[in-house]
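Expect sequence, tokenised fold; for instance:
***
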Amino acid sequence: MVYFLIYLFLEVVVTSDVAAAMGGVFLFFEIIISAAVGFFILTNFRYTAAQGMSMMMSGKISLEDFQKMSLFTLFGAILLIIPGIFSDIIGLLLQFSGVGTFFAKYIFSLKSNKNMKKEYDDDAIDVEVIDHHSTK
């Protein structure tokens, strides 16, 4: 929830600054063009996925890299469709595989650190229960 509020704040600030500097007509055309680019990326995603599959089959990229590349391409296209300058900037950056890989490493390292903390609990007491009941 906090991240969404931070995103919303940045979106409003960046969009209003650009609208004040460039004007409302520029902002209108930017929103229309970025949405068209986002829809174009979504409609042609099957070709991008097929290209990634062939790269994966030839051994140039791993399955994990293919999944990350596909996920961030789709997420970037959706961000391009959403009106706003900040989301358009992030959406365009995610279309480049290097930026998507950087975000993936950052996000997945945070997840693995949280999982590692949950896996080892210093306050837990490890015990062994031995059942001494005989079956006579």
User: Anything to note?
Assistant: The chain has a mean pLDDT of 81. The chain has one domain: 2-113. Residues 97-119 form the longest helix (23 residues).
